[in-house]
Structures are given as C-alpha cells and as structure tokens.
Amino acid sequence: MKEKSVKFKEVKNASESRRLFYCIVPFIVLCFMFSYFPLHGWIYSFYDYKPPLRLSQCEFVGGKWFKTLFSNKTQVAQMIQVMKNTFAMSLLGIATSFLPVLFAVFLNEVKCKWFKNLVQTLTTLPNFISWVLVYSVAFSLFSNSGMVNTFLQNIGLIQEPVKFLDSDSHTYLWMTLWGQWKGLGWGAIMYLAAIAGIDAELYEAARVDGANRFQMMKGITIPALMPTYFVLLMMSVSNFLNNGMDQYFVFQNSFNKEHIQVLDLYVYNIGMTGGSLSLATALSMLKSLVSVGLLVVVNMISKKTRGESII
Fold first, then answer.
1. 99 vs 290 pLDDT, higher one
2. Which among 256, 260, 263, 259 is positioned nearest to 248, based on CA atoms?
3. pLDDT in tens, 78-93
4. Which pairs with CB-CB distance under 8 Å and at least 24 residues apart come from 60-65?
5. Which residues have a Cβ under 8 Å from the Cβ of 167 and sit 6 or more positions away?
6. Residue 293 contacts by C-beta under 8 Å, 6 or more apart in sequence?
7. pLDDT of 26-85, one tens digit each?
8. 223 and 198 in contact (C-beta within 8 Å)?
9. What are phi and psi of 48, to 5 degrees?
C-alpha cells in the first residue's frame, strides 16, 4: 500500500509539473520571438546593406563595418564622446538607485492610509506616461515661453528667458532628474512588497526593547531590503550600456546633442538618420556582446561576495 501511495504521489506531482510547464510555454515562445529570433538580424553587419534591396543582392563585406568603428578618426572621436555620455548617465543612474529604497522605507512609515495610497498612486503614474508626453510637460514648463520663465519674468527675477531646454549645460543632471521623476514611484513598488514580507514579530520585539521608528528602520527594514537592492543593483551594472533611447530621443536638439547622445540613441541616429543600417547593426551587436560579458562578470562577483547567483 505504501509503494502504491508513493507511486500515486509521484504521478500526481509529475502531472502537476507538466501542467505548470504548459502554463509558461506561451511566455517562453514570446521570449524567443522577441528576444532571440531578432538576433538573426546581426547578419546585416557583414553586408553593405542598401534598402530596399534583398540581403542576397547586397555585397558581403565581412568585418568592414567593425573595422570602420575603430579606424576612422572622426568615428572614434564621436564614439568616445558617446561612451562618455553613456557612462555618465549610467553612473548617475546607479548612484541614485538608493532613492527608491529610501522612498519606500519612508512611505511605509506613513500611518494615514489614504494619504499613503494617494502619494503612491501619484508617484507611480508617471511611469505609465510616454516620454513624448513627459517632454510635452517639460516644454510647457521650461520652454522660453513656458510657465516657469513667464512667472520669473512677471515677478522681475529675470529679464530674458532662461534656456532650460535649448542649452547644453547640466544635460546629465536634467536627464537624471527627469528619469527619477518618472521612475521613482515605480521603482519603490518592489521594495514596498519586500517590506510587506518582513516578519511583524521583529518590529514587536524591537518596540518591547524600546526602539523608536528610526531605529527600527535602520535595524530591521533597511537590512531586510538589502538583498533585493543588491540584486537590482547588479542587474543595473550588467545593463550599464543600455540606457534606452526614448528619453534622450525626445529631449535631444541641436544645442544638447553632444552630451545627450547615448549609445542606444547613437545607434538609432546612425541607422535611421545616417542611413547606415549595417554600421548601426555592427555597433548594436558589439554593445549586446559587451552587455552579456558584464552580466557574466557581475554574476561571478555576486557568487563570490553573496554566495548567490543572479542567473
């Protein structure tokens, strides 16, 4: 009887495992279609592709475009500036990655439930606004005829409009601030979920020992969030070269193009504006390989320092 019971449990577990696997099959297919299948486009980097010709009608040039990236002095100088911008934006993003943690910790301490929900809703909504609309807001507020310049002129603080958008000064800072405004509330959601999973008995024991709210935040809440923070931090490091394009594309203009053009935007400008799709593909291919390399290095560091792997 015991053997039959064990076999029945094994069959039941196997059946449940298959059902669960079938549930994730659609997501595996979608992941393959949108993340792995497009990689066949890397072959364009080995041809002198000229749309609308077929690839078979274009000349095979081998590693010509990869050599161009490092042999042309103008191209190299431009690439150096683009990499400076990319590193600056990424480093600022990593340096400010602690802000969602602090926001989540302090928001969790708000006892008024309706106010807490209101703040969380208002800070999360910007994440669902496209960067085009964000730029519309920025233009309405900070353009030469925008609300801020109009107000400052009306009260007599300035005589001429301040060029907030049509200027190359403090470009890195402005982009970081807009990014934080858009993503702060959304980034705090994961930490709020982690806080909800902390054992309430820890706080009760701390209160019995006479700890105040700040001492409990320092001794219980923040340490409990550190594993989640470090995993997300390491993922950010592995995505060091992936700044995205949307934000920088809508905010770029002829005044700030030198310092706002990150690697993703540079690839787009080369491919779509410059018409060199093959060169843009070669650059994008190198960026992907470097990103995978960074992910492997960060994973090794995580395994050595924390004893846990992130992939």
1. 99
2. 260
3. 888 998 999 999 999 9
4. 61/278, 65/278, 65/279, 65/281, 65/282
5. 255, 256
6. none
7. 999 998 998 888 888 889 888 888 888 888 888 888 888 888 888 878 888 888 899 899
8. no
9. -90, 80
Task: For residue 43, give both structure tokens.
Answer: 């072959």
Q: Find tokens 């993340």 and name the residue.
A: 35
How would you write the chain as a 3-class SS string? CHHHHHHHHHHHHHHHHHHHHHHHHHHHHHHHHHHHHHHHHHHHHHEECCCCCCHHHCEECCCHHHHHHHHCHHHHHHHHHHHHHHHHHHHHHHHCCCHHHHHHHHHHCCCCHHHHHHHHHHHHHHHHCCHHHHHHHHHHHHCCCCHHHHHHHHCCCCCCCCCCCCCCCCHHHHHHHHHHHHHHHHHHHHHHHHHHCCCHHHHHHHHHCCCCHHHHHHHHHHHHHHHHHHHHHHHHHHCCCCCCCHHHHHHCCCCCHHHHCCHHHHHHHHHHHCCCHHHHHHHHHHHHHHHHHHHHHHHHHHHHHCCCCCC
Q: Which two tokens stand for residue 211?
A: 């700890």
